[in-house]
Write a structure and sequence with these properties.
The structure is a single chain. The chain has about 240 residues and is α/β, with parallel strands linked by helices. The chain is built from eight helices and seven strands. A seven-stranded mixed sheet has the order 3-2-1-4-6-5-7, with helices on both faces. Helix 1 links the parallel strand 1 and strand 2. Helix 5 packs parallel to helix 8 and helix 7 packs parallel to helix 8. The longest helix has 20 residues. It binds guanosine-5'-triphosphate and magnesium ion. The site of guanosine-5'-triphosphate has 20 residues, from strand 1, strand 2 and helix 3.
Length: about 240
């Protein structure tokens, strides 16, 4: 199966070189697409330069910061147009260990439509987050699963693999959310279409270098959208 790894970046100059090295070490065969939103720190130039060192890598340059969901949607379209069979997602801040990529790919090869690198299944872990952040992540996931009827423990996770035939069925232009909400929305779209979701355990690490782009706006967006989808689909009786 031909696999494309999409790496969204905004201001990841301190991480991108190590990310590319470790991805190539873990998966000699995946094609890499960095989707950069005009990072002022020169991430795109660095990625392009180091991409030639690790090979089979390129950069999709977008002009302004337009959000994670939008970066992934562009990356998905790019990969589907070029006929890739599997589309992988991973953060570019080393929170996701590239060494887990083969286990995500393996689960797609065994038949899954969506594979999630999950912090909340046996064997998975989160770092020593503050009590507040842990509760937010855990209860946010429980809320989304309850409201949307998802049998998924970590629907906000951004370490994923999609089977292309499943992704083609999703109307990407109709996907509205951007941050955590984007990951939940995509999970919901797959489940609603009868796709199989498999969670493989991962150890999530805290970002060591560079700055977070997480914001309270992203959390509020996710909560509001999940509530809206739940109400809408209860009324329309189209919950999975
Ligand atoms: N292209 C693009 N990438 C983005 C954008 N926002 C975030 N990213 C990337 O998406 C990934 C996840 O963003 P983070 O800032 O690490 O968000 P987070 O993981 O929720 O927060 P931390 O745990 O604090 O790191 C990183 O690789 C970012 O560089 C964006 O608007 N455009
Ligand atoms: Mg991060």
């Amino acid at each position: 199966m031909r696999a494309l790894l999409i790496l969204p970046t905004f201001q990841e100059a301190l991480n991108i070189v190590e990310v590319l090295d470790r991805v190539r070490e873990a998966t000699p065969d995946v094609h890499i697409l960095v989707v950069d939103d005009g990072s002022p720190d020169g991430t795109a130039d660095l990625a392009e330069e180091h991409g030639t060192v690790v090979g089979d890598a390129e950069v999709l340059r977008r002009t302004e910061k337009s959000g994670l969901g939008s970066a992934y949607r562009d990356g998905f379209r790019w990969g589907l147009e070029r006929g890739f069979d599997v589309l992988l997602e991973m953060d570019s801040d080393l929170s996701h260990d590239p060494a887990a990529l083969p286990s995500l790919l393996g689960a797609v090869e065994h038949g899954a439509d969506l594979v999630i690198g999950s912090r909340y299944v046996p064997g998975g872990s989160i770092p020593a987050w503050s009590w507040h952040r842990r509760q937010l992540s855990r209860w946010g996931n429980r809320y989304a699963a309850g409201v949307l009827g998802l049998a998924v423990n970590d629907s906000t996770a951004g370490f994923r693999a999609y089977r292309a035939t499943m992704l083609r069925q999703v109307d990407l232009d109709g996907v509205a959310a951007d941050g955590y909400g984007f990951q939940i929305e995509m999970t919901y779209e797959v489940v609603r279409r009868g796709g199989s979701v498999v969670e493989v355990p991962i150890a999530f690490a805290d970002r060591l270098r560079g700055t977070s782009k997480m914001s309270s706006r992203i959390v509020v967006e996710a909560l509001a959208l999940v509530t809206w989808w739940g109400l809408r689909d209860r009324l329309l009786r189209r919950r999975p």
